[in-house]
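Annotated sample (chain length 74).
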Amino acid sequence: SAIEEFDTQLQVDMILNNIENAEQARQAVGTAYDGADVSQLRAYSIGDGEAMSGLLIAGRRENGDATFLVFLMD
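Output written by the structure step:
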């Protein structure tokens, strides 16, 4: 909800709100990226803006483990 870039906001909305079982999706993303041990979190808009667009979310934990979520639409 704190993402300010418009295109990235649209992608996040598709993942968290405009799907079946949206509450479960929000819980899963929160579990993966909102833990106290997550030390870095980045969200990127990806794609060429015409044929393909999407979102890459990368989270790194303090122990060095990382979790990536890639969402692409054509």
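Annotation: The mean pLDDT is 87.
Annotation: The two ends are 24 Å apart (CA to CA).
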